[in-house]
Design a protein that fits this description.
- The structure is a homodimer.
- The first copy, chain A, is α/β, with parallel strands linked by helices.
- Chain A folds into 2 domains: 335 residues, TIM Barrel (Alpha-Beta Barrel), CATH 3.20.20.30; 65 residues, no CATH class.
- In chain A, 37% of the residues lie in helices and 14% in strands.
- Chain A has an 8-stranded parallel beta barrel with strand order 1-2-3-4-9-10-11-13, surrounded by 8 helices. The first copy, chain A, has a two-stranded antiparallel sheet with strand order 5-6.
- In chain A, strand 5 and strand 6 form a beta hairpin.
- In chain A, helix 4 packs across helix 5, helix 6 packs across helix 7 and helix 12 crosses helix 13.
- The mean pLDDT of chain A is 92.
- Chains A, B: Keywords: Flavoprotein, FMN, Monooxygenase, Oxidoreductase.
Chain lengths: 449, 449
């Protein structure tokens, strides 16, 4: 039996998920829009045998308050499906996962982009399916589409896009020069989809992707999000502050998979974690403190208040006072599961605003500050106790956070036999130990075991 | 005064615009979906100092008739906005122009993609704005949107996308580490567009493109197409079988520019031409004949019949008989100007079906078979007599057609002082001799002279 390794994804956002990262000494201030930075990071991740890098995305500038906006480098950012093709050329093994939303895109368009990226990268593409955190105002609407409608559309979007990827069977391109036959038209399947949200005839004007379908990732952890993940996802990203939360999430989402005829191992669950590491605990803590000191508290608290949306502007309350929870928590149209996680955290730990703020500088994901040994201990505990199939590492700052992790933590994980020393396969699916999906028209609609 | 050179664009489509190209000896049969082919071609074009490569696109498989489809390698193809970012990494000077339609895309999405490509390539992106030849069936419709509506939408699309590119002034990203100010919010302009087709608030979540706006190309030659080009285009692609047609087109489209406050030199008109060249005329003719022999006449005639849409299936008539023009030519929803060009050709030359077929294997563009000297003579005549600012070379076969042109014709053009020996500038706009557009919010809405 093949040794079971944990999976590692790299979550990249601007030049670091921490709002102070761009102000660190030695980092070019515009590094978040510099291709050189991303090339370095991608090649370093590949040297560290990461499964994939994963780019987040938004289709709006979420907060126009001048005080917040002036301090938000991620208000201007890369389009993931433009940057990843460029990174495909400068890497050979690393998976390349782009976030793209199902609410303000059309399935034919995304089917083509991901099919082309999969082709270009030799089977290393992944799609992080989201329903978007906003953006209606840029797509002919007054407001963001409501949560329930977004998930209905996402379910149908998945059916259409996979149907388009199945337009041609794997061996439909024959290219027989003698006869002049380029395509075997008996291996063409016209979709003819008509549903509540989409009417798409097909076929796609692209060959079937090398991986059958690009690896499908899903990050929504609300109830409809879990259901969609259980039915469709290969990779599931989630946020969990404690091992118990992570265990409960994994049991739940893998438990839901059975009714869709899927084996629990066909979903890999990767909790997000922000790792700040150095040879000693004191040095690691100093790195984190340096980042924290570069944040503007008022701007950060306003950003966090919008993000968790509990009906309070935390920037208007004393930093060292308690978090003023209102009696009635408003219904939120985005970040449903993140709102719940933060409410649980507040009720569990009763932090001051300052303490809460320090815990939420990775978007609600866990922050782990430690030596390579203590980080590896933590990863091993979660991995062996059913809390994680691996981790999505939220890099607080680039390129330093990636360099530290690959140089310090990866060798320690490898030494303990927790992580690969060579890529096992050629495609992202092969490296993740995931089956290649069959073609619904040719293989009876089953995923191959 | 700087010497006036002709401009050269390279039209790339699959592994050649000629339907027989993939069957040539020595060409990998799946080369049209091979990145290695495109990398070779792009680097060769750059060695030949081409201004830009230009990828065409469609959002459907236009003809599902099995006899035609089986012989159509371009039924499966690259997404241009996925391939061009990859080519940006392996080139340094070449312009990269992607076709994208305004009928089935949203301006916010395309604004981001082209802004990112312009950033990634250091100011070498171009957008070939089309209203699409079809695809409604893949975008929630029973039929393709009608011509007049498509152009109305295109006009508004242009206003929105350029407004989004102007969201941030050129120097809005300040990145001042000391103060923690990343963006100068006084240089933000929220679009707040509300029109008949689009409601888009903005701002774009990307910096202003290095070129201000990517180079805008336009290929529609119908009356609304010419109007749109006169108002918006930097580059105009067109099809002309004779110098007189080209001269009349240039006079017309540049003449229309004045009413939009534009100088005639701010539009560069590039007629398409398919060049088959070799050291001797006999060798060049033999290359072309070899390609022609690789076409299936019935499939090709059916394709041509659809394309020119004059109400006759040419494949059902004798090859050596006259072209049976019906008394009433049907109104066409696509290729309006191409239909007119072909009707003019038939009435002027009264060809047999076989002769017409041989003239239309480059999509209605002129086919020039000659030595480097005769090709250069032809180019010089068109260039000096007001028939062209340069040419969009339709490469019949890849990579051979590109290798031949760069190795044989380019040196001859350079020897005559008709073409550059070094790139003049850093961006595509600079190489084309085009002004950088000002920001409508900051520079009074004027293009800089």
């Amino acid at each position: 039996m093949t040794q079971r390794f944990l999976k590692l994804g790299a979550f990249l956002s601007g030049n670091g998920s921490h709002g102070g990262s761009w102000r660190l000494p030695g980092v070019a201030p515009d590094a978040g829009t510099s291709f050189d930075l991303y090339r370095h990071v991608a090649q370093k991740l590949e040297a560290g045998k990461f499964d994939a890098l994963f780019m987040n995305d938004t289709v709006s500038v979420p907060e126009l308050d001048p005080h917040v906006l002036a301090r938000n480098p991620q208000a201007v950012r890369w389009d993931p499906l433009t940057l990843l093709p460029a990174l495909a050329v400068v890497t050979r093994h690393l998976g390349l996962i782009a976030t793209a939303n199902t609410t303000y895109n059309e399935p034919f368009t995304l089917a083509r982009r991901f099919a082309s990226l999969d082709q270009l990268s030799g089977g290393r593409a992944g799609w992080n399916l989201v329903t978007s955190l906003g953006g209606g105002e840029n797509y002919n609407r007054d407001d963001h589409v409501l949560h329930a409608q977004r998930y209905e559309r996402a379910e149908e979007f998945f059916n259409v896009i996979t149907g388009l990827w199945d337009s041609w069977e794997d061996d439909a391109v024959v290219g027989d020069k003698d006869s002049g036959i380029y395509l075997d038209v008996d291996k063409l399947h016209v979709l003819n989809h008509k549903g509540p949200h989409f009417q798409v005839k097909g076929p796609l004007n692209a060959p079937r992707p090398p991986q059958g379908y690009p690896v499908l990732a899903q990050a929504g952890s609300s109830d409809p999000g879990r259901e969609l993940a259980a039915r469709t996802a290969d990779l599931v990203f989630t946020a969990a502050q404690t091992l118990e939360e992570a265990q409960a999430f994994i049991r739940d989402v893998k438990g839901r998979a059975a009714k869709y005829g899927r084996h629990p191992d066909s979903l890999k669950v990767l909790p997000g974690v922000s790792v700040i590491t150095a040879p000693t605990q004191a040095e690691a803590q100093a790195k984190y403190d340096q980042l924290q000191d570069l944040l503007d508290p008022a701007a950060s608290l306003k950003g966090i208040s919008n993000f968790i949306n509990i009906g309070v502007d935390l920037s208007a309350h004393p930093l060292d006072g308690p978090v003023p929870l209102p009696d009635v928590i408003p219904e939120t149209n985005t970040h449903k599961s993140r709102q719940r996680l933060v409410l649980d955290l507040i009720r569990r730990e009763n932090p001051t605003i300052r303490q809460l703020f320090r815990k939420l500088t990775a978007g609600g994901h866990r922050i782990l500050i430690g030596t390579p040994e203590t980080v590896a201990d933590d990863f091993a505990a979660w991995f062996h106790q059913g809390g994680a199939d691996g981790f999505n590492i939220m890099f607080s700052h680039l390129p330093g956070g990636v360099d530290d992790f690959v140089d310090l933590v990866v060798p320690e994980l490898q030494r303990r036999g927790l992580f690969r020393t060579e890529y096992e396969g050629r495609t992202l699916r092969e490296n993740l130990g995931l089956a290649r999906p069959g073609n619904r028209f040719a293989d009876g609609g089953k995923r191959r075991a």
